[in-house]
Fold this protein.
Amino acid sequence: MHDLPPLARFGDLVAADLRDVTSDPAALDSTGFWAVVADFEGQLVCARFGDVRREPVPAAVPGAWAAPAPGDWSSSLDRAAYTAGVRRIREHIAAGEVYQANLCRVLSAPLPDPAAADVDALTALLARGNPAPYAGTVRLPAHGVEVATASPELYLRRAGRVVESGPIKGTGRTPADLLDKDRAENVMIVDLVRNDLGRVCATGSVTVPALCAVERHPGLVHLVSTVRGELDEGAGWAELLAKTFPPGSVTGAPKSSALRIIDALEPVPRGPYCGGIGWVDADRGTGELAVGIRTFWIDRTEPGGPVLCFGTGAGITWGSDPEREWEETELKASRLLAVASGTYEESGRTRR
């Protein structure tokens, strides 16, 4: 909706009065409060706001979000193409080119009323139907950014010189669904995140305070680890992003090989999905960026008209079963698509 003012919302933190927009990450170490959206492909938008306050997420207003119909969603990779991609990644693993790679697909649906599509109204729906620790809105339509996220995953948290990441690897409906493969995958990605942070943190300062903790989220459970370090002297947000982006949990290991495989197998860009979304308070030296998963965004550049997009994926290892990995992508998407399409009920059931 182009006549709505720019806005950013992260939990109960709301930012208005847009002052500046830049793609320079060094700005995050200047002054002011910034909303940040980094596309998986590397495009960065940093927006400085002058009015920052705390207020509860507004209640979802019936009819405020014009939802796509449940049957209108299409996928960049269908079941056959996705499972073929899983098999191809296993071939790369067998050849010794990669240990793990994340394979993702982008779902899209036409917006029934593009002019009235407000991602903040969608955020209000998500807050009710799928509460998440890093939920938020970034609404900058003039700059091509309209994002509503219900991310459960921490990409980077910073307090002064201390930085922390919380990679997620391993997903199931219940803890009993989690396999040895999930734990092995988590440990592998923790090693990658340790290496990434080690490139910008003081030698010996990188630690793992928590490894493979089970976290419950709406409709599923995850294995989550915590990696922490202390930034090198002279290093700031620009160096931190340069050395750790894209997030390791949504790429693979080794990261460079995984990115080449992703580029070959995924037919469309991921955009904000699997990027970084969050806020930085440059005055206080603090910030919190989530991994852009469980995230919706509006793409108004499609030739056929504006569409609502959503990404879902899974980490592929040698132990991956192609059909199980497809089902994991379905599990991650089902509840959120139901919320966005207006078919999710408080009981947790989805209306057919």
In short: Residues 347-352 have pLDDT under 50 and may be disordered. The chain has six helices and 18 strands.
